[in-house]
TrEMBL record:
One of its GO terms (biological process) is mRNA processing. GO terms for molecular function: 3'-5' RNA helicase activity; ATP binding; ATP hydrolysis activity; RNA binding. It comes from Labrus bergylta. Residues 18-189 form the Helicase ATP-binding domain. Keywords: ATP-binding, Helicase, Hydrolase, mRNA processing, Nucleotide-binding. Residues 217-400 form the Helicase C-terminal domain. It catalyses: ATP + H2O = ADP + phosphate + H(+). This is RNA helicase.
Length: 698
């Protein structure tokens, strides 16, 4: 395998690259996707002995990419995954004392900075896939610039200077270099072959809301199979359910082929259909990279993960749906939601490019020229400009970045997004009126969960009933546990089982259902069988068990400190779970207005409906007030995972949604803390500590 990697474009530049990394604090590396940046550069640096000073850390915006690439590199270095080469993603740490090359999500590195601001255990940090412009990578870029761009300070808190490598698949390298004190740019020259692109006729600007694109994608992929010469196909779709649906349809069609008459290229007599999406089991993912058997054409149906994060060899044809599933802040409901939106033109070019790595290729776009011109933006908007900033702003504040408006952002988020985040943090008591992090905020930042859920969990812990919330938080952190079969009869059967699970709790509350499913499965003799009988995803539940343990460990560590909040509860015990939920979800309160319509109370006053998957669906008449976990926007706005509450429980919390003066928070946010002020503050603190010590002496 090592010899195979010698054919990668990066190989010829090995020595120069190692030198370039050694020579400066920051280095930007660019090169076509598939040139070997992600898998090879960390190995080169390790071979050059750099890892003797500390771990080589490589960040990825996507969880699957971190895992898959680590597997590959462990294989290339002939070691067991988790030993010399390991990975860490949220709730899954596969590293050890021996790990010298560590792949991880950008979110994980951000959490590490909280515990160790100077990243003292690393010799090199490589931020990979920077062109994706994920929120966490953007924040990391700003933080690393802030901490390490002053050469005098680059060894602060460390015994040797940290090296930072920023990798990007083309695009924006000048901007990156300028941002990082005009650092050098290393370009890996690569050869690409021409890709002919053709537009379709079926999907135009009017089809943005419809799901007809799945059928169209299948039709075109099938046409490629029957009328094009041998070569593998890569289909870009949006998400797991769309991909599974498309694979089913393709499979059906492929069954009907008579290879003697129906296909152009007589050397092809079979189609191997493989899905590829984020939450897929990793052993299944490995198949994707294997060459197909002789005379068989491989067709991979993937999310955007195959656009730059993972490179599959042998792809000659691309089928591009023109859509992507993206997390966007929805101002209609005031929350982040996953939406299917048209990709940008630059993204479309990137997708097409995947067909031209080893020879000339073809890209079939299912959309027409008008869609390209009218519906597709030039570039993808960076995540920092379109999603909620609450969690990262809390992280920044905990790192001592008080002025979050003038933080060095590669692209600034809109000020109102920052204000919105400050407001939410204030509502959750994570910061005070002057914008400073509270004790509660310091506890909250320790949990890799969304702030509302963390707030509810901490409330429960302070009332000593964390056992009610820990499983719920875990269940909400894994993929959907309820199986939704495609076949209508099976769907009915699954619905019936799920309804039975909900009524076991006796309280008709989706959070309580999650709790009850968790325990029922855990205490069962045959948990996997129990899941099968009840149409529950065993794999998802298994992860929930592990997540619960990890959350419990974090909580235990915090509870051991003497200042962990303790409260007493004088209400009805059976209301405990719901009362705790209110503390974290009062920003998601809705009140029934007429019929089955609810109105949210967060100032947006959106009209929402209860989602059919909820146990409360069709029970609306008996409800007045509810809190909910998230929303799904289709032609209607649906609330999902719902819990009935009483007005008295949120009465005192609701005014918080309106009382806060964002200008007050923002004025503070604008106030610059000078180095001098900081020094004064530090010496005051030191003096205080000193006087405490002397008091102890007495
Ligand atoms: P880059 O980061 O520059 O896009 P990579 O280092 O990801 O490039 O990929 C280099 C080569 O390694 C590609 O030819 C790719 O097909 C191969 N490769 C990467 N991961 C795997 C894997 N899990 N299995 C097989 N081949 C892989
Ligand atoms: Mg890469």
């Amino acid at each position: 395998m090592m010899s195979e990697s010698k054919y990668l474009p990066i190989y010829k530049h090995k020595a120069k690259l190692i030198q370039a990394v050694k020579d400066s604090t920051f280095l930007v590396v660019t090169g076509e996707t598939g040139s070997g940046k992600t898998t090879q550069l960390p190995q080169y640096l390790h071979e050059a002995g750099i890892s003797k000073d500390g771990t080589i850390g490589v960040t990825q915006p996507r969880r699957v990419a971190a895992i898959t690439v680590a597997q590959r590199v462990a294989q290339e270095m002939k070691c067991t995954l988790g030993r010399e080469v390991g990975y860490q993603v949220r709730f899954d740490d596969c590293t050890s004392q021996d790990t010298v090359v560590k792949y991880m999500t950008d979110g994980c590195l951000l959490r590490e900075i909280l515990a160790d601001p100077f990243l003292s255990k690393y010799s090199v940090v490589i931020l990979d896939e920077v062109h994706e412009r994920s929120l966490n990578t953007d924040i990391l870029l700003g933080l690393l610039k802030k901490v390490f761009s002053d050469p005098a300070k680059s060894t602060r808190g460390r015994s040797f200077p940290l090296k930072v490598v920023v990798m990007s698949a083309t695009l924006e390298t000048d901007k990156l270099s300028a941002f990082l004190s005009d650092c050098p740019v290393f370009q890996i020259p690569g050869r690409t072959y021409p890709v002919t692109c053709t537009f379709g006729s079926a999907v135009g600007p009017k089809d943005i809301e419809s799901t007809g694109y799945i059928k169209e994608v299948v039709k075109i992929a099938f046409d490629v199979h029957t009328s094009e010469m041998a070569g593998d196909v890569l289909v870009f779709l949006t998400g797991q359910s769309e991909i599974e649906r498309a694979c089913d349809l393709l499979y059906e069609k492929a069954e009907s082929i008579d290879y003697r008459y129906d296909v152009q290229d007589q050397t092809v007599d079979g189609l191997l259909i493989l899905p590829l999406y984020g939450s897929m089991p990793t052993d299944q993912q490995r198949q994707i990279f294997q060459p197909p058997p002789p005379r068989i054409r491989k067709c991979v149906v993937a999310t955007n993960i195959a656009a730059t994060s993972l490179t599959i060899d042998g792809i000659k044809y691309i089928v591009d749906s023109g859509f992507v599933k993206q997390l966007n802040h929805n101002s209609r409901v005031g929350m982040d939601i996953l939406e299917v939106v048209p990709i940008s033109k630059s993204e479309a070019q990137q997708r097409a490019g995947r067909a031209g790595r080893t020879s000339a290729g073809k890209c079939f776009r299912i959309y027409n020229k008008e869609f390209w011109e009218k519906s597709m933006p030039e570039y993808t908007v960076p995540e920092i400009q379109r999603t909620s900033l609450t969690a990262v702003i809390l992280t920044l504040k905990c790192l001592g970045v008080h002025d979050v408006i003038r933080f060095p952002y590669l692209d600034c988020p809109e000020e109102r997004f920052i204000l919105e985040a400050l407001k939410q943090l204030y509502q959750f008591d994570a910061i005070d009126r002057t914008g400073r992090v509270t004790h509660l905020g310091e506890l909250m930042v320790e949990f890799p969960l969304q702030p509302g859920l963390t707030r509810a969990l901490l409330k429960a812990a302070s009332l000593d009933c964390q056992d009610l919330l820990l499983p719920v938080a875990a269940m909400l952190s894994v993929e959907n546990i309820f199986i939704r079969p495609g076949h209508p009869d099976k769907q009915k059967e699954a619905d019936k089982k799920h309804r039975a699970l909900a009524s076991r709790t006796g309280s008709m509350n989706d959070f309580a259902t999650l709790l009850s499913v968790f325990h029922a499965c855990k205490s069962s003799d045959r948990p996997s069988g129990w899941c099968k009988d009840n149409w529950i995803h065993w794999r998802a539940l298994k992860s929930a068990f592990s997540v619960e343990t990890q959350l419990r460990e974090i909580l235990l560590r915090l509870q051991q400190k003497s200042d962990f909040p303790v409260e007493t509860f004088d209400g009805n015990k059976s209301e405990l779970l719901r009362r705790c939920l209110c503390t974290g979800y009062f920003t998601n309160v809705a009140r029934r207005s007429v019929g089955k319509v609810f109105c949210t109370m967060d100032g947006h006053g959106s009209m929402v409906h209860i989602h059919p998957s909820s146990a409360l669906f069709d029970q609306e008449d008996e409800l007045n007030w509810v809190v909910f976990h998230d929303v799904l926007v289709t032609s209607r706005v649906y609330i999902r995972t719902v819990c009935p509450i009483r007005y008295e429980w949120v009465k005192d919390l609701l005014p918080k949604l309106h009382e806060v003066d964002v200008y007050e928070l923002s004025n503070v946010a604008r106030e610059e803390v000078t180095d001098d002020e900081m020094k004064q503050w530090e010496s005051r603190e030191a003096a205080k500590r000193q006087s405490e010590v002397s008091k102890e002496d007495v």
